[in-house]
Amino acid sequence: MSDDIERALSEAFHGRAATITADRLRHPELRTKRPSRLRRSIIVATGLAVIAGILIAGGYVLSGRNTPATSTGAAYVGSRWELSSVQHDGKRSPVPASYGVDIAFAPGGTIVMSDSVNALSGHYTTAPGGFTTSDMATTLAGYVGTDPVRTQIIEAIDAITFPSATNGTSASSVTVDARVVADQLIITVAGYQLTLDRAGPAADPARPAPTSGATSSTNPGFTSASPA
Amino acid sequence: MPSPVSGAAHLGETELTELYQACYLDLVRFAVQLVDDQATAEDVVQDVFAALQARHRRLDDPVRYLRTAVLNRARSVLRRRRTARLFLTAPPFRAREHAHAADESSVRHDERTTVLAAVARLPHRQREVVVLRYYEELGIGEIAALLEITSGAVSSSLNRALATLSTSLGEDHV
Question: Which of A6, A21, B23, B98 is the most exposed place for a label (fewest CB within 10 A)?
Answer without folding.
Answer: A21
